[in-house]
Amino acid sequence: MALLQGERESDDVDVVIVGGGPSGLSAAIRLKQMANEAGNEDFRVVLLEKAGDMGAHIVSGAVIEPSALNELIPDWNSPENPSRFEGVTAVTSDRMRFLTKKSAFTIPGPPQMKNHGNYIISLNEMVKWLAERAEELGVEIYPGFAASEILYEPGIGAVKGVATNDLGIGRDGKPKPSFERGMEFRARVTLFAEGCHGSLTKQLIKKFDLRQHSQPQTYGLGLKEVWEIKPENFVKGQVSHTLGWPLPADTYGGSWMYHFGENKVSLGLVVGLDYPNPYLSPYSEFQRMKHHPFFAKVLEGGKCISYGARALNEGGFQSIPKVAFPGGALIGDTAGFLNVPKIKGIHTSMKSGMLAAESTFKALSDKDRGTVMLYNYEESLKESSIWKELKEVRNMRPSFHSPLKLFGGILYSGLEAYVLKGRVPWTFKHPQRDHEATKTVDEVKKIEYPKPDGVLSFDILTNVSRTGTNHEEDQPVHLRVPDWDKHAEKEWPRFKGLENRFCPAGVYEYVEDTTKPLGMRFQINAQNCIHCKTCDIKAPSQDINWTTPQGGEGPKYFMT
């Protein structure tokens, strides 16, 4: 066991970025642009990504508003640029529908959802492209390196970098013959770009009390499939969004369907994780949704080629924490810059990474070698387009908590979108954290879902196989539950298997076991995990802690 306490190799660099999504890569690119322009080519920017390949853990709709990308790489879509990003489809039309069980009614979409000038993309593909541009500038990118520990300056408490997790530890917690100690990356500034509900970000928020003046974050779960469809069903550039069925009126959410590339369709469902009924399964709602004529007539004769799921931030303006702390900052979705009514967050994530990069480079250019505090990043954020657009729509998502539920939210959001535009003296609060909204089974009606037909709808393990997810079984379970038996004894009587239903990857199960007092045993199939973070958010007793498994493991998403 002394091996676990052995000395780690270390590397001292200028800036460490944790996470290779849009915000982390934008920060890295902007840093190296400024350093190279200043003649400081030796300025070292290291980006660590837990996925084995860049983009492999990324899921998004996605329609991108190109404002930040235009600023960061002006010729990103220019025909004269041999390295341009080619995987874009210009939006040609917008449709907004309210669904009942069999019908689809046209409703006006808010101005925020107009997509003229926007593009449909696979964010998975765009991230790969951004990583190539970053490496061309000299950014050092290390996929398969899972940052699992924050390093602090002794005595001061400022962040001084991160360490990656040890490899080759058995399920019993003991080193195997393949054991390798993790590595330390030390820097004067560490930018955390972990995406929604980052595992290290949780620790930083607690240590530095970053939510002291903000409301708790609220979340949704986005589930996505990519289909190849028949050419006669394809309308290139068409963007559709829906509200209503299949979700009940007390559950926030909606769907999308985007026609992109050549005969490809991205479709998905977002379900607010403050849903009250423990029998509700976001995955099963998504599967039955595809049988609605609105979707079925498009998918008929097609083939599902990809699946993914990921938690997303829905808290908006009032849930943005303090983003700077001694030695670093939060950027992108880990801070929570998603514009929920607009259903977009790529541009805000990228812009936040660029703002943090500019503040970082300025701070590191000063001769003062003390602890870096990125006050300028917080100030520039409040003066930016991010702040303006999130403040304007701050009351829309929480308006769905009114006694009128879905219909009250739609009416108020319409008033905000067309008349008030955020110019009101009030800010609605989120009434509770998502897990606190869950009712017990004796308070609700049980939901029975139809069996998947294997044509339009699929069982969960079939779709998990499409994610390419993989975890070595002989390692500590990265979904940390202190006592599995006590968890079952507390949660099964109240919720009858909520964990199995909220997980979009079949990780959690209750298995009949006559040796247990309840006759049921709680089981975690960690190898199925697709890193969506839903369990860490929705578990009623908050006793599931998502941590990073070995670097390089998890999903290998395609076209997501």
What does this structure look like?
The protein starts with 8 loop residues before the first strand and ends in a 14-residue tail after the last strand. Helix 1 runs parallel beside helix 3 (123-137), helix 1 (22-37) packs parallel to helix 7 and helix 7 (346-365) runs antiparallel to helix 8. The mean pLDDT is 94. The protein is of the alpha+beta class and 560 residues long. The protein has helices at 22-37, 67-72, 123-137, 199-207, 282-289, 293-299, 346-365, 375-382, 385-392, 405-420, 460-467, 484-495, 498-502, 534-538; strands at 9-12, 15-18, 45-49, 63-64, 89-90, 93-99, 104-106, 119-120, 140-143, 147-152, 159-164, 167-169, 175-180, 183-186, 189-192, 219-228, 238-244, 253-260, 264-272, 303-313, 324-325, 328-330, 479-480, 508-512, 520-524, 545-546. The protein has a seven-stranded mixed beta sheet. Strands 9-3-2-15-22-21 form a six-stranded mixed beta sheet. Strands 1-14-11-10 form a four-stranded mixed beta sheet, with no helix packed on it.
> For the largest beta sheet, what order do the strands appear in spatially?
7-6-17-18-19-16-20
Taking all Cα atoms into account, the compactness measure Rg is 23 Å
Strand content: 15-25%
Rounded average pLDDT: 94
Tell me, briefly, the overall form: globular
Which key features would you list for this structure?
single chain, 560 residues, alpha+beta, 7-stranded mixed β-sheet, 6-stranded mixed β-sheet, 26 strands
